[in-house]
Structures
1.
Amino acid sequence: MFIVVVFGLFSIFAVRSMYASQSSFLQEEAVLAFRQLLESPLNETKIPPTIGIAMYKRDGRTIAVHPYMVNMTAVWQLKRAVLKNEDSYKANKTGLVSKEDDFRIILYNGTTYIILGKNITRSKVASVNGYAFCPPKSDPFCPSNGNITVKVVVTGD
Amino acid sequence: MVTEPLEALIAIMLISIILASIFVYNQRGTESITQMRTLSRSIAGTVAGMYVNYTRSNINFYAFNNTYVNGFLEYVERKENVSIAANITVILKNGTLRTARLRQMSRPVKRSITENITLFIANESKDVHVYALPFRNYVNRICILQFPLIGCLQYKYNITIYIVGYYSDGTPVIGDETSIEDASANGGPFKKSPPKGIVYINDGIWNITFETETWKKYTTDPVTVSIKYNIGGEEGYKEVQLPNEDYSGASFRLKPEKLCNNDACYLYYLGEQINLTGPTSWQIESLMRDSYCLGSGDIATGSGHCGELPRYIFFTPGPYKLSMNSGDTNQPFFIEPYFTIITVRVGFNR
């Protein structure tokens, strides 16, 4: 009987830990956040602003978007205004993830990093890696070949 | 058969563990596919961004493909331990698809994910470029009074200059606010022509013609044409110096079969045929990038080859210069933006 109880408890904790570690919701949230970030432009007219860094052109009511082409003006706007401190981050983070979770965006051009969002890690973490094109000469951050690495980390409990 | 309660309990637990393991394994597999799909989409999007950048730049297709696309995809292959193939497909005006390979897979893979990004090159730039192209590379001199023993006594002279206005992405400047403010021809038989006044540009191209009104004597003095423009809000000045030579007799042009705003225009969608008059051995040169193409007869855009390049790849959106009879005659034209599909297949052995 003792063996069965020990085995049973072990089984229950094993299954529970497996379930708890997968963080499937966070993973899906990270994928959605990654896609929104690189496929949508920054829209500051909304409250909270829609957080995105895709290149776009507005012509009257029409908007043409280039997904995965980074608009560095939007990146600096996020860093200097939308996500510049704890208060603005808290007020605007729901423009990318749910209010219970936090995010961190890392852009890497081969030599330097730009980090946006909150630099904390809670009990569960999910991340998505990918690439984007930063038009050379559009900003000093953009490398000569235009390739940058983008990582979106979503963390929650 | 009687089953012991203890055995039944153990059996239920074991079955639960197996089911839970299968559930978790499947879920992780799905997550892995989702992540790979996101990675594939970002790779396809990056290549699409490179193509958009290429259409706005002066680099040629080889530099775009070898330096940018393949350099990036090799880097991703090493970093992510994947194998990548990429294609570019252009959609012609009649709906035909033409595909060219940018990269093929470097090794066999177990599974792969394919992502497509469709692009329409919109006019997004207000960065204006202006190009002045003489219809002939010299002052055109025509003898109008010929005596058998004495030779030619009286001549008429004419010059035509095309002004081409385009944005950085290769689309033509269009709009009533665009104008040639003034133009004059100085020197030779023209001395100083009267100002032309404002003329409006239709669809990126306008021509300005100067012709001597009266018969003139023989002269070989060169002529300078000065043009003041305001194109797309960009004010500027162009000067073209032309030597004064004898008329060759050759006269080739594009047939202006199309009308834009009730005027002849030279805008073509990829896949349209460009018809020519007269004998037609030609060279086409991009005004934006270092690429050219030789051929003869009518020009079927979007098909065939140009050197080692497929012609539909050569004809990226933008302004082109058509030269005939070894540069004797020039004619600008535009290839209109078209839809392009970037396809990326990411293969992995996980």
2.
Amino acid sequence: MSATPAAVNQMPREHYLNATYGIRSWLLTTDHKRIALLYLASVTFFFFIGGAFATMIRIHLLSPKGLLVTPETYNKLFTMHGVAMIFFFLIPSIPAVLGNFLLPIMIGAKDLAFPKINLLSWYIYLIGGGFVLYSFSTGGLDTGWTFYTPLSSVYSNSAVTPAVIGVFINGFSSILTGLNFIVTVHTMRAPGMTWFRLPLFVWAQYATSIIFILGTPVIAITLLLAGMERMFHLGFFNPQLGGDPILFQHLFWFYSHPAVYIMILPAMGVISEIIPTFARKPIFGYSFIAGSSIAIAVIGFFVWAHHMFVTGESTYAALTFSLLSYLVAIPSAVKVFNWTSTLYKGSISYDTPMLYALGFIGLFLIGGLTGLFLACLGLDIHLHDTYFVIAHFHYIMVGGAVMGYVGGLHYWWPKITGKLYPEFLARVAAVTLFLGFNLTFFPQFILGYLGMPRRYASYPPEFQVLNVMSTAGASILALGYLLPMIYLTWSMRYGEVAGPNPWPATGLEWKTPSPPPTENFDVTPEVTWEPYDYDNRPDLGLDVKGAPSLAHGDD
Amino acid sequence: MQSDLPLYPEQASNFAANVDALMVYITAICAFFAVAITAAVVYFFFKYRRKDPAEVGVPIHGDMRLETAWIVVPLFLALTMFGWGAVVYVDYRRAPMDTLDIYVIGKQWMWKVQQPTGLREINELHVPVGRNVKLILASEDVIHDFSVPAFRVKMDVVPGHYNTMWFRPTKAGRYHFFCQQYCGTNHALMGGWVTVMEPMEYSAWLSGSSDATTNPVVAGEKLFVEKACTTCHLSNGTGRAPSLNGVFGAKVPLADGSTVTADDAYIRESILNPQAKIVAGYQPLMPSFQGQLTEEQIMDLTSYIKSLQSQPAPTKGSGVAPDAGKK
């Protein structure tokens, strides 16, 4: 730990990237860091596919009659956009890439508890992804990502069967990752790493893993039932065979609502790491942020039927689920208040990860608050299945989860690659993403209140102006995503050497070289400090004594 | 009155003003928090920017009173949203008694509407202003959703279920309705227009287009004979199945000791799945008509059974609970 920020940084001579060479050393690796990079490549691939579909959707909607494709093709575009983005990008993104890379290092472990199972998760993901790509390329999929029966199980003429098999298989990848994380956090923490010294990112991954394990089996079975109904005409959901299509929705949302928290909780964990680092102070209300992750994971299992307020479900069920949906909003609010308070009297830098974190707060705020509109029974009658819902969940999943993921990639990029990215370009990209995102999705709230239904290949002409605004925003947004892909790739080879702790930050991952050695640490670390504590960390080379008086004088 | 870029659709039903008021209330609270938090973030961002590369922030670990405040206050506000939303929703889900009942059938990708007189429309719905209208919704295939933004109402149309929705149009005019549950290829084309007319005009319209009408009661009575319902459901109550006179809207005692109100959904279920609810004192003999009747035929049969509401129920051999005929 000799490196101080002032010293000239050098790449370590041997690290996990150059420890072994050859394609076999990657495809058969059990190193959690290499597996994280395998995931990084594969989720980026699916992000590109989903992004290409999104681009075509937005171009198509420039004109009320639809500019680009036939209605059949349009229906496939939004379905495949959803399936690729949700099951193969958003759900694995932060856990399988950043979580895989960081979770063992953050708790001072050499690897995950089950390194081979970790590799198996990736192969299962690939097999599931292969089935889904097969569906996309042989007829496509037009059921909506929600696979509602009996449309999916009886009426659709598209390649539904390989798609549901793919999503079914992919579920096991999530389950195994969740299992691996939970066991690792319980059994492999370094000496001194108590539960309440865990980084909040680890708490968030732990909460996410609970949902992986408890929720994923339900979606897997549900899609299997829908697939069996389609293939063998068994009557689970088809009323003509004595089934009930609403049963499918209950089962589907029992997983798929918690799945929203699978996407957003890890991003919240990323934000909880970035903000203290770039405000250089302990996070405000550590235990409340940690506890709220668990609260979201638990309460999140009891709100699913708020997707079904207008299916004809009983009024009492609707009242119960509306009330519970309001309860789950509280822990999210608690997090936002605590992050904001952390900024108070901080020493705030304008580094790129911080811009993403603050952008996240702004977008998640709008995404979360508009959830209150949809949880409201009286309003949901009007808003349900309109563009208001589309805007709301994109604010959560793209404004929240993707901003968190991209912000986290920037924050840990020096650790992952040992290199710094070009800071100015990165700030430009962050601001571009924020502006492009808002221009794309804010008009959709208004479209939704005006009544424009989702999943429409054509629409009444009065909705055109707002749709054109949205498409204009999407082109800015696309630019915002391309920029980081270019300069991050560039930086792997040409970037400035980062050193072990460029920010500097307090977590264990920053106490090992960048990139870390295969074993993560040369000596098992011992944790003697509280999380996000800058005051008792002389090793960071910061001006601890001067700071408080400076801040006071500043008031 | 509406500008070129309106923020809300026209208000054309009893629910519209309530829903919009609720929208304003929640928007006001949310805007307050969004602005306050954004302002705080931006202010701190500039106020506490790092002035010296080695500077650290003031170690503040938390504050119990603040944590309590920002749990309790949002919770209270959220509960007020829940409460108001619940009031609007319960009102919407409980149709009043005196409704004008119109059958709506969704199928890929069109809407078939049947007025009480039997007048049929495709992708059009005519209703009188100021009258409580109840739509009874059925689907021939997949899940659809009938949605009228100007009325602020929607309801899924689910195969195998009857869903109902009601509204009272308050303003004459023509308003879009949409299918709002994705239903396959031409989902986006599965819409049409609600025409709200003055009551006089509506009656004139109903009778004026009567030549194309098949009276659903007549059609239903014909089916009732064709499907051999008459062999068991004898009107004098001596058959193997209960007389249907006076049954509709009445309480029916069941074999398991409970009672059920004979509404559209009950009649439909008894036709398609007769074993589900056996009338007290009768054997489960009736065959299922699942797959043998279209949704429209079921609605015709229901209309016929409804028309028997005014017939006197026999004292013995009726599905009507003896002391509950008055309902």
